[in-house]
Amino acid sequence: MATTDLAPAPSDTAGARRHPLRDRLAPPLPDGPLWSWVGALLVTAFAGFLRFDGLGTPKAVVFDETYYAKDALALLRFGWEHDTVEGADKKLIADPHADIWEGGATFVAHPPGGKWMIAIGEQLFGATPFGWRFMPALAGTLAVLILCRLARRMTGSTLLGCAAGLLLAVDGLAFVTSRTALLDIFVMFWVLAGFACIVNDRDRSRRLLAERLERGDASPHGPFLPHGWRYLAGVCLGLACATKWTGVFYIAAFGIMVVLWDHGARRAAGVRRPLTGTLLLEAGPAFGQLVVVAGVTYLASWSGWIFKAGGWGRGEVASGWLSRPFEAMPDLWRYHTEMLDFHNGLDTSHPYQSWPWDWPVLRRPVAFFYTEPKGACGSGERCSREILGIGTPVLWWGALAALVAVLVIWLLKRDWRAGAIVLGFAAGWLSWFPSAFADRTMFLFYATPLIPFMVLAIVLAMGYLVGPAASGAHGHAAPPGPRRVAGAAAAGAFVLVVLANFAHFHPIWTADTLTYDQWRDRIWFDTWI
Fold first, then answer.
1. Taking CA atoms, which of 75, 262, 374, 479 is between 20 and 30 Å from 340?
2. How is 378-432 classified by DSSP, letter by letter?
3. How far apart are CA 302 and CA 239, in angstroms?
4. Mind listing the pLDDT tens digit for each residue in 360-381?
């Protein structure tokens, strides 16, 4: 595997390196843009087909769709979440135009960002199962494209980039949360998009640093560098927080990471005072780009509640539009303290609850939907239809080994890619442990934002397993050696087994009708019931 840290720098006709510092700090990516985009788009099209095929089935309100589909519809109509009549779910299934509203504002436990996204689909396609699942399916599909491009940038391999997208496309939990109107797929999408922006900024800023130093910047602290991609990362991470508050842990983790990257780049470039240069020129702007921009984005997601009267705890609304955000802040603060108290007190036992240490081994998944339709199988056989919120077992269990390998790689080789992957996984996993020790109710699908980092760990481990391409005479690639052949075969076999595993479980992710015995064959452990 040609990695971005190890790829050979281009040479001129005399064999001399054209830009030695630039090529060392930000090595060029392999292949042309055509092949890299064609491969990524083909994988994305496959993911889109899987997610949109039969998206309106089952024609029912599935699991927590009972909250978010109606809240999204309320945002479209009122700008804030509203109480509904008893039996509102059945009314909507029977008639998407039914009047389901009564009373006034209702208290909600999550900010409105993810529900605004669900509302886009309802605005386009109506208050139908397809309508409220459209944006989750779109976000899950686009996440595959982002991961293809991100993994290519991190590994220096178009093939590994496409493999990463393919693995995300066929992960069961990512698949199920992409086909139901829950919030976790949006957290995953925005965290992944923010992380991709940060990695892209890393390459661009290091290239710019090298260019300015090669032009003769003599400052002992190094030059001041713009980080345009970090502003976009701040928006993405702010939208993750506007979906669920767990996004804040990624902001903290990635904020520390980018400052460490900035310091490492200046030191590697030979800047005389890299630490002071980082603290003076990088740390403050990074805080603004990630934290401040994310905060503004988060507040913007509350615009319906801020600018329109009637929301929960909103109080009186000032007549002037310019003054409304300011007079709304005390009420919004009180609302947030109520939300925090709700989450801290959420300890009601649930049959599908699980703990963070259960998630990687898939001990206790969640049944999003289950029914036993009479006579659907013929001959009086017992039938089952289920949507089981569980990851593809082979992928998740393989990711466990890959994460351990990647952690060792980071400890031994200080590979920045391994460190970033471990940090991204830890930010979304370890942050749940304090709540678990406090007996807070939680579920496996809370782990959805971890999946891209699990996949990145797998493809990075694959890259190390295959090894770099050997160079022959005059810079031409040499025939692959035994290690590379064996590594490629092992990596390819793993992907094929994951695909087969996905195909086997597909019926219990899409509510297909099975005989009870066929369904039971896919329930490998009693804890999955």
1. 75
2. STT--EEEEEEE---HHHHHHHHHHHHHHHHHHHHH--HHHHHHHHHHHHHHGGG
3. 11
4. 999 999 999 999 998 888 777 8
- Please say whether the beta carbons of 57 and 511 come within 8 A: yes
Residues 6+ apart with CB under 8 A from 277: 219, 220, 221, 222, 266, 271
Q: Which tokens in the block code for residue 440?
A: 């807070």
For residue range 143-182, list pLDDT tens digits in order.
999 999 999 999 999 999 999 999 999 999 999 999 999 9
What are the Cα distances from residue 65, in Å, to 62, 82, 302, 404, 467? Answer: 5, 15, 21, 35, 45
pTM for the predicted model, two decimal places: 0.93
What angle, 0 to 180 degrees and rounded to 10, lies between the N-to-C axes of helices 33-52 and 129-155? 150
The answer to whether 347 and 468 are in contact (CB under 8 A) is no
CA distance 342 to 138: 31
Q: Which two tokens stand for residue 225?
A: 């560098």
Q: At a CB cut-off of 8 Å and minimum separation 6, what does 258 contact?
A: 198, 201, 202, 230, 286, 290
DSSP state string for 289-324: IIIIHHHHHHHHHTHHHHHSTTSTT-----S-TTTH
Helix (H) or strand (E) holding 367: strand 366-371
- Going by C-alpha positions, the residue among 421, 344, 409, 359 that lies closest to residue 109 is 344
* Greatest Cα-to-Cα distance within the chain, rounded to the nearest angstrom: 84
**If you ran DSSP here, which 8-state letter would residue 352 be given?**
T
Contact 154, 417 (CB under 8 A): yes
Q: Are strands 82-84 and 101-105 parallel, antiparallel or unpaired?
A: antiparallel
